[in-house]
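Complex 128.
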Amino acid sequence: MARAGMPRKFVFVCINERPEEHPRPSCIRRGSAGLFEAFREQTGAYGLVDIKVVASGCLEPCMVGPAVYVAPDDVWYGGVTVEDVPRIVEDHLRDDQPVEFLRISREEFELSPLAGRSDLPPGEIPPV
Ligand code: FES
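Predicted structure with FE2/S2 (inorganic) cluster bound:
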């Protein structure tokens, strides 16, 4: 049981925005602001006071966004819509059963343009 004030899970919802002409997509252009609000509303509706919904910057799997990451479960979701939120809240956040069909596979995650960029000097991060 979670201690008072300590969230049992964190739900990171990417709300990163890039210019439309940027080569990498951004989750906010795929509706993640609505997702963030829907997660907040749905967790509240279920009284899940030990679930913390966090608006996040880029989480990395931009190509399959909108991206959502649930910690400490280490579960990644991609292509999430507002219609998917009640199921994630009920099955995963309330009942601890991740919604398998929305999970991002390792292959999908690595569609990221930054994957394999080990040639970059340490500390140098390409523009996101
Ligand atoms: S912009 Fe959302 S994961 Fe990168």
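The pocket of FE2/S2 (inorganic) cluster is lined by residues 14, 16, 26-27, 58-62, 65, 67 (CB under 6 Å).
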